[in-house]
Amino acid sequence: MGLFMSIEPCDDFPCGGYLSCTPPVPFIYNLILLDSCDCEITRIAIKKHWMHPALERTEIEADGFCGTLFKPPGERRKGPFPAVIDISGTGGGLHEHKGSMLASEGFVVLCVAFFQYKNLVKKLSDVEIEYFEINAVVSINGPHVQNSFINIKEYGELLPQPRTDPKLGYFINGLMVSSPVLRHIELDESVEIPWRRIPASTSFRLVASIDDLVAPSVFCCRYVSQRLIEGGHNFEACWSASREMQGLG
């Protein structure tokens, strides 16, 4: 799924591959109008910009840490600005498009890479959770582990992981469909996020889109919403698949 329902992949991007977004250079869509015989009538190039041209982008590589810091544009806008830490997923690398777009709207964003990038470790199972102690501890312990070869370490030991059934996963064109695995994950106190430890004054906004067969976003959003309700937290949740909006004041 892309900008249009009839979108076709480019020759320079494999099926399911990431767009080139580090650094976040513009991406070109070629919109082509065809007649009933599939003969080209005309075409136009549509340029997608990820970042404001005056955005401040700073690459960080120090003390074993790698990332990119984005600051909003404009000399007069000294802040303070709301801050976001954008952590790339289990695909590895560093993906700056979300961070650059948020910074263009007035956020200070730190995009964090933690494996498969520059001199960082190559495998997720070699990542130490202490890596995420960036001025404040970023907790990533929760129902994010699919099986034993996708995990993160703490003080050299693998973190507890929920029980899953890897047989529920399968592949389409070489891409892993893990959504059924995550939908049937079994959680207990050793792997569940300690929701009640989150301060009651902390508010949340959850946004989920349609299921991409990798992560069941709407399913997970509903799960987190229920946990927040049980903990008495304020939140707003939007799942675009059903165009629902749920809020708790």
From TrEMBL:
Keyword Amino-acid biosynthesis listed: no
Protease is among the record's keywords: no
Domain (Acyl-CoA thioester hydrolase/bile acid-CoA amino acid N-acetyltransferase) ranges: 1-61
Pfam families linked to this entry: BAAT_C, Bile_Hydr_Trans
MF-aspect GO terms: fatty acyl-CoA hydrolase activity
Domain BAAT/Acyl-CoA thioester hydrolase C-terminal: 131-234
Keywords tagged on the record: Hydrolase
GO biological process: acyl-CoA metabolic process; fatty acid metabolic process
Protein name listed in UniProt: BAAT/acyl-CoA thioester hydrolase protein
